[in-house]
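User: Sequence for Cytochrome b5 heme-binding domain-containing protein below. Tokens please.
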Amino acid sequence: MARHSYLLILGALLRAACAFELNLVAEVVGGAAAASWAFTTFQDSQRKQAVSAADAESKERLEERRQRAFIEPRETWRESELKQYDGTDYDGPILLGADGKVFNVWRGRHFYAPGGPYASMAGRDATRQLAKNRLDGDPDYEPDDGAPLNPAERASLALWVASFEGKYDVVGKLVDGD
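Assistant: Structure tokens for Cytochrome b5 heme-binding domain-containing protein:
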């Protein structure tokens, strides 16, 4: 359709030029330029409205997910209490313990929910996994011997905890015992 319109405009221009009707040529060119500008402006406006609507919808979905994943912070948590927040409820909170802190990692649910690469850390104390930079059950490593963490492992754990503090909500302290 647009190609047909351009051909009509081009034909009118050629006819006008042949008849030396320069005023008509200027009028057609000016009209075509104005129409092109108006159409482009209209398209830009429509595109901006669509993006704005999509952004609003995305923000609304994020807020709904945030509300479903919210968990009231508590003074203390025990590891046994974390188990019910292991990501099996994909829209609910996902809790992970690390170095005495409990994080709600729901924003990273694609990592921590079942099937995710770090699912073995969800709903439990992941301190040793993070410190040793390995996942429980990884066939490339011997099972964790439970020995005290060495300085390099403590440093690695500190980096993980600092990273989590920048991304996830701290919802309490992890205490020993069930």
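Strands lie at 76-78, 95-98, 101-104, 124-125, 169-175.
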